[in-house]
Amino acid sequence: MTGRSGRRSSIDHKAVAAKARAERGVWQLAGLYPSAETGQSAARRIPRAERMRAYHPPGTFEAYSAPHEKDGATAVWVRYVAGLPMPEPRPSTMSYRVIDRGDGPGYTGVRIVTVLVEPECPRCGGPRGKPRNHRFCEDGAWYDVDKWENPCGHVDMYAAVLAEHRKRLETIERAEQQAAAHAAAAPNDAGEYTDAVALLNAAAAEVSGLRAKQAAAFLDTRGHHEAARRIQEEVASHPRMSARQAAVFLVELAAARAACTQCKDGRINYKARDGEFVSLPCPTCRREVVPVA
Fold it and tell me: E strands along the chain, which residues?
């Protein structure tokens, strides 16, 4: 890759892969990439061993990308997962019980808050540590909180974790409000998904914090199988998607299908270089149709 200084630096993926194989299931820092796009691309290609022979055969490594504190770089982390037993899956969030003594200058006492934060260290992108119980006494009262050690060695301070948690809640709330406004503004513009969108909005209004993965299962049990599959596909790349965001996704997918001019009935047919005719599913419509014979 090329760094911000203009000098070209390289990542020794062969050495990274060898170290990961020697410590199966342990996340290893593969290297830093100058942008989120290049880091995300590498993280997608590593499990497939696409243009990265060090990670052959495909399916034996996992990878993810995360922000790094150094000059806005993106860190890519990998681990070797072949063999049994399978390592624990990478969590979508981490939950910790932390101490909250308030933001003011005066002492206001102790409050224990359960926070949900990103599973990666905010400094280097490495995995955060697992919580362990810590019991302490203050002002004659006993409290239980969590302590954890990040494998990377960076320390999470309670105040910083609380701030991260609150910022995350604000971001989720804004996204929920935008999704709700979008879905409510055009509830009848969902085409074939109109009934599915109405069900999702009703369910999201009744169940606070309903996630898209749960919403897909809900739709599937009510006969909206195609809508459920489309949401499940989207959740694979957006694991934190909410039910309201899933409803917006269906509205936008229906609109894209209605406006699509690339295909015929969900298929793109063209003549390949070898003279054979090829039929591919349209990436815009994403319809489930039988290929043209």
Answer: 28-33, 61-67, 74-80, 94-100, 111-117, 132-138, 141-147, 267-271, 277-281
